[in-house]
Each structure stands twice: as structure tokens, then as C-alpha cells.
Amino acid sequence: MTHTTRIDLPQTVRDQLIPLLNQTLATTLDLKTQTKQAHWNVKGPQFLQLHELFDEMSSELEDYVDMVAERVTALGGIALGTAKVAADKSLLDLYPLDILAGSDHVTALADRFAVYAKHVREASAQAGELGDDSTADLYTEISRAVDKRLWFLEAHLVG
Predict the structure, then answer these.
(1) 93 DSSP assignment
(2) DSSP letters spanning the chain
């Protein structure tokens, strides 16, 4: 179901972009809550550094949630952004709820950020192929930031 919009993208293009963006929305929401799970439960010698890092990352993901949801609605779609939808549609594995050590949380998040980064890059390419440079640009913006956060996580795993 879509709403009327004056955006000059053909309905057939919007019909492909809206589900793609909603898939991203679900995965972003899931990644945000998984990052908060790590933030709340991290323990160990790097507690404060990781606690603050995970909180920053979660806040950034919240910004992406809004960006993606607003693009869905701008294209005439309905943003599917409830926790239940996210749980059902996310591309991510369930987060391990029994970990405490900082390195375990860093590894779990790095694994999930890598999946998310790949999805965002593929979605950017798909939006570009469909002729929607604005959506492709949105994905590119998210991709750059997510790659940086993945680098931060991986740096904690060296040594």
C-alpha cells in the first residue's frame, strides 16, 4: 500500500524501494537494540570506554532509523518500524544474551555491523540501479558511518 506523492519516481520503482527500505529499517532497529544490549551489559577492564562507545553507536543508529523511515514515507510508503516487525524482518542473528566480557560484546557487534554494512552497500547499489540517487545517497551516508564503526570495533579485537 502506498500513498500519493508528487515525487517523480515511477510507482514501479517506489514499489521496489519501499520494501528494501523497510528491510533496512527493521535491521537498523534490531542493530540499535543489540548495541544497547551490549551497552547495558558490558563488563571488564574496558568497561567505561566500551559502555560509552556502544552508547554513541546506538544513538547514531537511532538517527539512521529516522532517516530510513522518513524516506519510506517520502516515497509514499508506510514505515514498518515496530519492535515486532524488526524482530521478524531483521537480517541479523539473535544477540547472545549470556555474554558479559567486553571482547565478547565487541565480537558480537562486529559480526552484526559487518552484515549490516554489506546490506547497506547492496541497497545503495540497488537504489542507484533503480534510478533513485537520493535513496542511494542516503544509503551511502549510512555506509560510510557504519564502516567507521566497524573499524572501531575491529580495532578492539587486535592484539
Answers:
(1) P
(2) --------S-HHHHHHHHHHHHHHHHHHHHHHHHHHHHHHH-BSTTHHHHHHHHHHHHHHHHHHHHHHHHHHHHTT------HHHHHHH-SSPPPPTT--BHHHHHHHHHHHHHHHHHHHHHHHHHHHHTT-HHHHHHHHHHHHHHHHHHHHHHHHT--
Q: pLDDT tens digit string along 90-103?
A: 999 999 999 999 99
Nearest to 135 by CA among 84, 83, 67, 77: 67
Tens-place pLDDT, residues 127-148: 999 999 999 999 999 999 999 9
All domains of the chain in start order, with CATH: 11-156 (1.20.1260.10)
Q: How far apart are CA 52 and CA 10, in angstroms?
A: 44
Residue with cell 558511518: 145
